[in-house]
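Honest question from a wet-lab person: if I give you the sequences of every part of a complex, can you actually get the arrangement of the whole thing, not just the pieces? Trying it with mine:
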Amino acid sequence: MQQVARLERAGEVVRLSGPLTLAQLGNLPRRLDAAVKAGTHIDLSGVERMDTVGAWIVHRLVRDRGAAVVGADERSASLLAQVAQADKPVRVRPERPGGLIRLLGEVGDATATAGRTMLGLVGFFGALMLSVGRVIRHPRRLRLNAVVQRFEVVGVRALGIIGLMSFLIGIVIAQQGAVQLRQFGAEVFTINLVGRITLRELGVLMTAIMVAGRSGSAFAAQIGSMKLAEEVDAMRTIGVSPMEALVLPRFLATVLMMPLLAAYASVVAIIGGGLLSWIALDIPPVTFVQRLREVVPITDLWVGLVKAPVFGAIIALAGCFQGMQVEANAEEVGLRTTAAVVQAIFLVIVIDAFFAVFFTEIGWN
Amino acid sequence: MADDLDELGDLEHGEALEEVPDPDGDVVIRVRGLKNQFGEQVVHEGLNLDVRRGEILGVVGGSGTGKSVLMRSIIGLQQPTAGEVSVFGAPMVGRSEEEARGVRRSWGILFQGGALFSTLTVAENVQVPLREFYPRMGQKLLDEISGYKLVMSGLDPSAGEKYPNELSGGMKKRAGLARALALDPDLLFLDEPTAGLDPIGAAAFDELTRGLKERLGLTVFLITHDLDTLYAICDRVAVLADKKVIAVGTIDELLRVDNAWIQEYFTGPRGRAAEHSAEQAHQEQAA
Ligand SMILES: Nc1ncnc2c1ncn2[C@@H]1O[C@H](COP(=O)(O)OP(=O)(O)OP(=O)(O)O)[C@@H](O)[C@H]1O
Ligand SMILES: [Mg+2]
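Yes, you can. This is the full assembly:
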């Protein structure tokens, strides 16, 4: 049988007995609230044990209803005194305005934040370029180890997943292209399709998306957690520039790895397309390669390779920038990580559209 | 009036509330043959320790001797390599989730770094254990309880609505203490509670802990480097060195142990100063 706190009422006196502790209170607070009025005497002489919550329940009745406590032993009396002393108005959370004002506030906030983010990103790029300048003047300040380590994380370890993805995309394009082109008896143009679209667009774009998801998010989370733990502040006070130590290696690694990854992705996608052409369209590999060399201009490769480092720069900038913005708490690390990926992919696609127009204008089509 | 009732809510639980079984009687924490190893590094080996009901046990030892790891093994956050740990008479390994819940309800833990939930305000942090174990408690009562716990722990009332990243180091400690005290536990684990507190705050903390122990019969496992705290409130002190507890006892008993580190610890300049001020406090109390 478990013990619970009990309450008996006799006229002006409410008698409590049993343990008056948090675990044993049950619905006693409600019943007490109903039973006690101004001038009621609360008799504690039957109470076996009391903790601070029990004392608080009694204290608030004394405070709000003007009840009087009788029969408290020494311990209970000192507990009551202790909680009474600790009774100060404490606000649990900051006040928030309600309704329309809040909505307007949030819209305004979001707008201001979007503007500030864009400005911040530009400023961040400027700061990064300054530190690039410093490193060029003092090459010994480049953290070569950190850069090479990032090469591995950003580049080498991504080979597996990017290869698999590109291979499958090559197959899908060849397959879908073949189905459509067969209607005109022009299956052989599948090779044009696979070769040109992967080299110009898909290879680099899919790689950018994968790198943003893999590395951009990691940059934001790593730097964000370091900011939370005050590691970044500690660096600054020691005289280590976070730009040089954290951002620059990640930036360089991404910028340098992106073209390699994009070229690799395009080649693997073409292999996938070639394999499908061989199996489904009976185009032997030799013919496939020959035709590829005829119909795909070398400028297609340049288009991809020019875009790749720019996309890499955007991904690294967005990741590191968002990471550096983390301030308050763990939730912000998550939000900033998401923002880094979304921002990177969005900007990559916007810039890609500009590139498409630009390359057409200069005649690389 | 009816509103008020609703705001108060109910403290009843869904689950049956068993008293924690306690065949061990007076020993709340029992550690036997504990071994902890990280890779090559052996932190504890053959460590034995008893913490008795209603006592404040101070745990001392040089930095890195494994005080925090010992606490983590006792509360089950660190799986020991070998050995047994029982709390309230039940072994920590292999207990059912229900038993574990019962034990968790009766202890409060203050981590060395505070370990506050960063997305909640200080007051909401204190409410987390209350909400977990008393889901039907009304918001008003929750707010009131978290309020007085914070003030009791020595925080300014205005700190309740702040987020942990807006607090100073000492304030984080106090907020962590308020959260540890949220459920009015029977057993309190404190990892360096006075580190980072000003001397007045540290003295107030000593007073609070001793008061709670006297009024609520609390058992306290107290890791500390603070000699004043040791002299002021600890009933016994356990000394951690050489991967085990090399001595346990009152400070007077420890002073008689023939061990260089213990002698150095208590009779070094700081030890003597703390002893002196503790003696003075006693004399003042007597007068
Ligand atoms: N997760 C872990 N992995 C590896 N080693 C650890 C881990 N946690 C602790 N250690 C090691 O165990 C030893 C004891 O650490 P612990 O944190 O318990 O020290 P402590 O006695 O609490 O010191 P302090 O007084 O400085 O807080 C240290 O040498 C530490 O390096
Ligand atoms: Mg420690």
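Two things worth pointing out. The pocket of magnesium ion (ligand 2) is lined by residues B 67-68, 112, 191 (CB under 6 Å). Residues 109-184 of chain B form one domain.
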